[in-house]
User: What shape does this take?
Amino acid sequence: MSNHVLDIERIAVLTSGGDAPGMNPAIRAVVRTALAHDLEVYGVESGYEGLIHGAFTRLEARDVGGIMQRGGTMLLSARSKAFRTEQGQRDAIHQLNKHGIDALVVIGGDGSLRGAHALAQQGVKVVGIPASIDNDIWGTNMAIGVDTALNTIMDAVDKLRDTASSHQRAFLIETMGRECGYLAVMAGIIGGAETVLIPEVETSMEEIAQSVEDAYRRGKTHAIIIVAEGAKIKIHDLARYLDEADVGFRTRITILGHIQRGGRPTAFDRLLASRMGVRAVEAAVGGHFDVMVGLRGREMTLVPLEEVVSRQRRANMEYYTMARMLAR
Ligand code: F6P
Assistant: This one.
């Protein structure tokens, strides 16, 4: 993190990796804060893929009007294979120089922030904004999109519980989260699940069957089992096992999938995204680069990207224990 104030005239912004509800309000905040600082702003289409190909468009205040309430990203997103190569990064830097871009704001998840750090190490002035429904990014309590995704999951679990109760069934519900069980654990607490399976904790099918059977014997009318996408036990194997073990409830499976990535951002995500967008541009104007904006407590902080990419955020075990304790 350098501290000297630089003369920045032109700034670019891109969204990269899996989209997250709230990326649009973040773009809006970046563009309008930059304009408030008399900077020229460019949007890069399709993340690093567009950067490599020089897909820059000048953005004015009106161009980001009416996007606050929209899920997805108006700038489009991509997972760029080409950018992971040395040549891809050279091409990206060439395009930044060709278009006279002094600073770049990258909105995305851990892979995108790793890309941002790689650019910074090659001299590009980059600021990151964390956006990923998985909440697996080190250095911020919340990433943009997490709250909206959780609300979507909560809504689905509430609906599934209705039908589960009517038929006295066990519902196995898969949430996203390849490496991190954050969404599953939180969904377990707010959705009143009997059991939560996450990548961070090894569980046996026997143990799960026992807890579901116990719930049945205690007179529960349904069982909710939340399975994170990355849990070692796979949802279909578990359903088969439970049906064969005859735990009382018959099972049904719902994979929530990409529904979790869409939808209108919640009030929390709009505010978080707006604050982060503002802070990112202020960081750039103040000469702070190779950093990510993070939420610590209620404050916006700047975390070195080196730290962000060298650590991994995983599900909080206190919450995991809480979810288990409350499942009685
Ligand atoms: O955004 C992160 C994430 O939602 C992961 O939980 C999931 O495994 C992945 O994206 C799937 O994304 P895609 O289908 O875009 O590759």
Summary: Residues 18, 109, 132-134, 176-178, 229, 261 surround 6-O-phosphono-beta-D-fructofuranose (CB under 6 Å). The chain has a mean pLDDT of 96. The chain is about 40% helix and 20% strand.
